[in-house]
Amino acid sequence: MEKFDLHILGCGSALPTTRHFPTSQIVNVRDKLFMIDCGEGAQLQFRKTHLKFSRLTHIFISHLHGDHCFGLPGLISTLNLLGRTAELHIHSPKGLEALFVPMLAFFNRQMTYKVLFHEFDTREPAMIYEDRSLTVTTIPLRHRMPCCGFLFEEKRRSNHILREMVDFYQVPVYELNRIKNGADYVTPGGETIPNNRLTIPSEQPRSYAYCSDTIYLPSIADQIRGVDLLFHEATFANEDASRAKETFHTTAAQAAQIARDAGVKKLLIGHFSARYDDESALLQEASSIFADTQLAKETLCVTI
């Protein structure tokens, strides 16, 4: 199967600790790199993944709290020092461009490449990126400011041709695209050869959902139903549920409940509060509700 990997660069929350970097991730789809959030130190963590800066073309910012975007100026500056020429696209809620353009103008007076900002509405789901193999759609969340998660979905690929069957029925080359897309083949003599005799189905398309800072929001289960991997913030343990509600965050148990309700295949929890020296209690709490739960940690790579 083609590459579809998630790299965790940082999984801490707003207060810095010696254990975690602020939130940032890389989604690697067929060696195209997409960054989700860009907390402080993201570019240093990027180096540790041994991925190439040159393959990063799109950055998705969930919301404009500093622990999710303070790493952007340094990353943009580093790419400039490296002599980048390809455009860099940054997708975010409204306001990031107004904040960052003056800063970039001051610190990067001679840019070697263009930084293009794309603002999205956080109130309704919207497809904000598409290429031949992938779409990225926003997931409206509820936080103390406008905030969205992101749903990465592979497009279904065409069926695979069975070469020996195509040769056996002497199917002309110009018919192959139709057959890949599900059409039967009618021979010159009028015999209909069913598609399932000429092809095998392609692999099931894969999906990844990233749910950033949000209060417990059961309604998102409908949009992320059945995804292969769900990352959901789990800032607090259940014993601190009142604090979670006050700060518009989620507990580990609530994240697991979302995963169970949505019927996802695997849950990854992160965005841990600095108050916990050991996140194993969060893992235990979530796993008791949704068994296939894993703790995020820096440099972790999960293949989807």
Automatic annotation (TrEMBL):
Residues 204-272 form the Metallo-beta-lactamase domain. Binds 2 Zn(2+) ions. Zn(2+) 1 binds at residues 63, 65, 143, 213. Its cofactor is Zn(2+). Pfam families: Anti-Pycsar_Apyc1, Lactamase_B_2. Zn(2+) 2 binds at residues 67-68, 213, 271. It catalyses: Endonucleolytic cleavage of RNA, removing extra 3' nucleotides from tRNA precursor, generating 3' termini of tRNAs. A 3'-hydroxy group is left at the tRNA terminus and a 5'-phosphoryl group is left at the trailer molecule. One of its GO terms (molecular function) is 3'-tRNA processing endoribonuclease activity. Keywords: Endonuclease, Hydrolase, Metal-binding, Nuclease, tRNA processing, Zinc. The active site is at 67 (proton acceptor). Its EC number is 3.1.26.11. InterPro entries: Metallo-B-lactamas, RibonucZ/Hydroxyglut_hydro, RNase_Z/BN. Signal peptide: none annotated. Homodimer. PANTHER family: ZINC PHOSPHODIESTERASE ELAC PROTEIN 1. Belongs to the RNase Z family. Zinc phosphodiesterase, which displays some tRNA 3'-processing endonuclease activity. Probably involved in tRNA maturation, by removing a 3'-trailer from precursor tRNA. HAMAP family: RNase_Z_BN. This is Ribonuclease Z. It comes from Bacteroides helcogenes (strain ATCC 35417 / DSM 20613 / JCM 6297 / CCUG 15421 / P 36-108). The lineage of its organism: Bacteria, Pseudomonadati, Bacteroidota, Bacteroidia, Bacteroidales.
